[in-house]
Amino acid sequence: MTSLRNIAIIARYEAKILWRNWFFRIFALAIIIILIFFNIGVFSSISNNRWFQRAISSGIPYANMIFLNVVQVAVLIFLATGIIKNNKKLDTNEVFYVKPISNADLVLGKALALFKLFFWLNAIILTIALIVNATSIDADINFKAYVYYPLLISFPNVVFTTALAFLMVTIVRNQAVSIILLLGLIAVILIYFRDKYYFLTDYIAFKLPLRSSDITGFSNLYNLILHRVIFLCLAVSFLFVSIFFLNRLPQKKVHKLATATIASIFLIAGASLITHYYDRHNTNELLRQEMITLNGEMADVPNIEIRSCYLDIKHAGHSLEGKAKLEIQNNQIQPLQDLFLVLNPGLKVSKLTLDGQEVSFTRKSHFILFRSQKEMPTSAIKRVEVHYEGVPSEAACYLGISPERYKKSWELFLYNIEKRYAFLQKDYVLLTSESLWYPTATAGYNRLTSGASQHNFTNFKLKVTTREDLLPISQGQVTEAGPGIYEFTPAFPLPQISLVIGNYDKKGIAVDSIDFNLFVHKGNDYFSEYFDQVQDTLALLISDLKNAYEQDQNIKYPFPRLQLVEAPVQFYAFNKTYENHQAYIQPEMVFLPEKGGNIGELDFRRQFKQMNRQAKRNNQLMDDKDKQANVFNNFVKTILTQQKNTSTYYWRSDGNVEVPNYGISPNLYWYQTGVSSKKWPLLNKNLANYLHQDNRYDRDMSRNWRGISLTEDCNNLMQEKDLEEILTSEKNFDKIAKVIELKGEYLFTYFEHLMGKEDFRSFLYDLVHQHSNEIIPYDSLRATIKNHFHLDIEPIVERVYSQGNLPAFIVSGLREYRVLDGDRNRYQVKLMVENVGVADGMIKVDFKYNKGNQANPPTTFDNHFGSSLISKGQKKEISFLLDEKPRRIFINTMISKNIPSVINLSLGQFEMNTRAKPSQGELIVQDEDDAGLKEIIVDNEDQGFSTFSPIQEPYFRKLILENRKERNQKYYGVWRRSATQWRPTTGSSYFGKYIRSAHFTRPGKGEKLAIWQATITEEGYYDVYVYLSGEDGNNAFSQNQSQRKNINYRYHVSHDDGEDEITVDISRAERGWNFIGSFYFSNGTAKVTLSDESENRSVFADAVKWVKQ
Amino acid sequence: MKIEIESLSKTYPNGHHALREVNLTIESGMFGLLGPNGAGKSSLMRILVTLQKHTSGKITIDGLDISRHRDKIRPLLGYLPQDFTYFSKLKTWEFLDYAARLSGKKRKKERAAAVSAMLEQVGLFEVRNRMANKLSGGMKRRLGIAQALIAEPKMLVIDEPTTGLDPEERIRFRNILSDLSQKDVAIILSTHIVGDISSTCNNMALLHQGSVAFNGSPETLIENVKGRVWQLEVDDAGFAALKEKYAIISTIPSFDKWEIQVLAENVPDYDAINIEPNLEHAYVYFMENNLNVALR
């Protein structure tokens, strides 16, 4: 019926016509120019671009295809709807309609014309990419990627978009309406659907995880091809539907039938592939559900512990065969008869023996249930052997991660990466304990059973048989027992082991009896050339780094080796509720991302460039050796040992938690020992964090956006829900993590306060040393502390973990001056803290100093300086005597109702106070009776404050300004200035009791008003003051005298003699209370208003004070 | 080539009867289709070129049923619609080449020769590299006929071929067609310009309200009106009076009088000369007498 020849002819001429279309030419030229710049800017050696963008060989064609793809869809829609529409001048079509060609020839010919055109466009773009790729000095070329990316991304997209456009025009019969509908559809796909329904709507492949690894290739190529074939099938179906409905009589009646048949066949094929695709993903979800449910059922079932585990693993292509010989022990107080082991549900157990006797077992998902013939009394030991084989299911990993987090797409630059937690391929294996690849004896996650942090220390031994050309990596001393056979013997019991097998090159160096090994996939060594000068001094460098680290942490690195292993780009690890590290860190092992991933410190080209620039700026003379040593140290100190001060900024309430952390500190504590407590499962994590001397900190900028910070969000949350509820039901993991962090900070500040910081710390270090390679039961920890410090920690732990009521601190009377302490000049800081909340609480005070003489001196947080326990209703004066002049004070109220929870105030000039005596410590203060002083303060949080905003926010702006999720928020960030409303915001420098807040708005013409009203009960003259925080927009206070411009606020004071306008130049005002005049007020309401008329970028309304003369 | 149309009817979905029981036999040579607007000419032609289905009746083309064998009939067709003036961005020769290839001309050399010859024939060879949409109206029309002819059709259907053409173009066009009519090709010419038919067609049909009112040679139609066409001269006053009495076919104003042709059995009150009738006279007469359509 159709003739290929006719299709080819039509395609040829229609393509010619399209090519002569100016719209297409302009688009093509524009996209080519943009992509030339894009390629040069992002991938070429000329620019200072990031390594991860070009590190993986397939990255350049992938990025190009993604970029082009989104743009070409829009153009394709215009062209495709144009080419198929029924011409207004019908006669033009009819000339061709009477030619001896079939309807299919016509439609397919036109479709093919579009394909041809876009084929050439893609070819040109890829050629540009290839040229840039080839001329880049350090990017590898992957020719295959130049074929498979267009086939996976562009080809199905062009075909499907064309077919969809044809179908749409055929149905709607109007080009303009069709274009609008199609563009709308694309927008919905890109903005709303994105990664929903396992990317099933993402036919453009904009979000589809297509990042391929140079180690393991595509992850799940079958799924990807399936996804693309679905759209090809649907495209064929749509094309034939368009043929069916083409407004032309068919060549033969039978053609109509044939067309309908083909359309139906492909539609059915597409639909069944969709079902298949969906099922493949959904099966995994069902498996996860089933496992979680089973975990819940089994959580409280008493079971044996595994003392030792000898594993004999055979890597058999795409599956593994394992024999596990276990020594199990009953550590329960009661005898056990029904026992279970846990193994990945993808691994099928073929045989199970108990003390040499084969026993029957039942498999329930990941559980292996079996029964001992006789009861196992307490402490009894038995031997179990498990034979299993298969492919571990990745869906079994990270059951504790919420579906939202689990499914959230992983994007880096233009690359979408599939999150992988385990690999088992012909030439590559990566298995961590998360994937349950060897038998264990504890049930895993269930949201109702939170005590999931139990870990035991087991004597592992591992024998691996693999292909001779592959190298296995695991924990322990390795011996090669034969070709392709390796045995690993860890030095001591471990909580877990991992196995990696791959085509690795090993680089090793022994320093201070520790083996430092680096395993890099063959062909991925991009770094050696940067470190040619330090080969002979490497041992020295490492030794220094190691010693400094151990000194810092007060714990010796316990393992005889540290192995850095390059993991495929898709390898991903989640932060877990009860652990303080991700699976990137294994005992004596770190999984670094393929070719350094986007770790800036492993982007050596940029690192060296930066170092050169810095050296030049500082007029430093550095030879290559110094530079290389610096770059090396920098990587280790920032990434592995984390001794370097680094800060992470974050702006919203989510985002930081999934950032990978490659710090090796879990090796010092978590993989060494641990405190186990079913009742207080978070204690171990909090302790680990406490022991880890971390110099990294988060800079939470979210107050500027949202009005309050994450900590305050979490404090609010803790008032509403108890810890258990937060841990199990909160959707935002950042909040969970922050709550845990706050609890830990509070608990350990409390401990320090009661036991003394130094004593408590050194006690803990001793404890860790004494309990190497074993778990410390909580009860024994409690007993030891009681013994040592005569303190029962249980009530404190109980209070911290279960307390819902919060303290609230009013900080006032901050004074700073210099005093003479003997003949020394010292710095005195005093403040009053009153707890007006409903529970006792703690505050912690830190100071920040100016250090160094550089123009922009680095500032550091000193170690925690002092803490104070303030019971409810108590008021304390706290005094600090410092040797160095501090610049700022940080009063951290930790868990409290305070907003901001950390009050950060700048300290003044420290004028000499000759009369004062130096003092230190805290003093309980009785509330003084202020009978003599008659003042009335109205703060913006008070009843007497109101605002008047005559204009409502336009709906659209409101939608943008107020993120839908945060619509109920009380406070607003100052970076989102409202034009028509007064909005409350918070900050340390505003006036307030425990909530320091102010209202602000964008300046206007005086129509928006802030009003303070006070009730005067004693008539007379009053001095009126207004509170100015100094945070007013332009930072007027910090400007140089000479640059100061008048910035006025206009106040109106209503008093007995009428109303006065008082203009206050805030650029010359003082921080705090500013006197604006004395007025006579008779009994009744006194009013001060502030208009929004100002030269400032924002107008702030905080507090007003009336002081009786 | 023989086209047989038997009791052909076409009713549109809106109930309009475009064709009623049309019976015609068309053979090789020029065949004129005459009729007022809305008589059903276009419907008939669109059905003949397989663009539309008919409601009932039967059409066979050289024995092939049109509703069954579109695949065999379409290769025999050449079609030039009335308003074929919109061209896509193709050069003149490319457009013709496109049409030639779709019509089944496979060999490149042969096709190139045919395209050149056709361009020569329609006088577009000089502008063969010009974009088709940049051609003048007459050139476009010629390119239109060229694309219909390049397929070497056995049945050529041309709708209103000479509308909008200047006299020179019109003559050239007629010549092309009369050359063609020497071959075994049925040329169906629809027009409401009677002159087009009289000069070229040896057979014709007159359609009125969807039915065939007349079918035969133009001569037969003219025979009917012999001795009934009169020419006379009147002044303004006389012209008004005359209009009341007779069917006026044409009026030519002269210095102070009107030169007028009327249709009548005789014109007793005037000094009239009986003149030789042409097809136009015959058409008007036929419409007035046989179909009672008043043209006055």
Please supply descriptive tags for the structure shown above.
heterodimer, A: 1109 residues, Immunoglobulin-like, Neutral Protease, domain 2, 24 helices, 47 strands, B: 296 residues, Rossmann fold, 2 domains, six-stranded mixed sheet, four-stranded antiparallel sheet, globular
Alpha-carbon distance between the termini of chain B? 40 Å
**Structural shape of chain B:** globular
Q: N- to C-terminal separation of chain A? A: 104 Å
Large-scale geometry of chain A: globular
The parts of chain A where pLDDT drops under 50 for at least 5 residues are 852-864, 1033-1039
Number of domains of chain A: 5
Mean pLDDT of chain B: 86
Structurally, the number of domains of chain B stands at 2
Low-confidence stretches of chain B: none
Count of beta strands of chain B: 14
Radius of gyration of chain B: 22 Å
Keywords (chain A): Membrane, Transmembrane, Transmembrane helix
InterPro entries (chain A): CBD-like_Golvesin-Xly, Peptidase_M4/M1_CTD_sf
Domain Golvesin/Xly CBD-like (chain A): 979-1107
Organism (chain A): Agaribacillus aureus
What would your notes on this structure say?
The complex is a heterodimer of chains A (1109) and B (296). Chain A has 1109 residues and is an alpha+beta fold. Chain A has 5 domains: 4-277, no CATH class; 300-395 and 433-498, tricorn interacting facor f3 domain (Immunoglobulin-like); 669-802, Orthogonal Bundle (Neutral Protease, domain 2), CATH 1.10.390; 820-859 and 870-924, no CATH class; 935-1108, Jelly Rolls (Sandwich). In chain A, 34% of the residues lie in helices and 26% in strands. Chain A is built from 24 helices and 47 strands. The longest helix of chain A has 46 residues, at 253-298. The termini of chain A are far apart. Chain B has 296 residues and is α/β, with parallel strands linked by helices. Chain B has 2 domains: 2-222, Rossmann fold (3-Layer(aba) Sandwich), CATH 3.40.50; 227-276. In chain B, 33% of the residues lie in helices and 28% in strands. Chain B has 10 helices and 14 strands. Chain B has a 6-stranded mixed beta sheet with strand order 6-7-8-3-9-10, with helices on both faces. In chain B, a hairpin with a 4-residue loop joins strand 12 and strand 13 (258-263). The longest helix of chain B is centred in the middle third of the chain and has 14 residues, at 108-121. The radius of gyration of chain B is 22 Å and the shape is globular. The mean pLDDT of chain B is 86. At the A-B interface, helix 1 and helix 5 of A face strand 6, helix 3 and helix 5 of B.
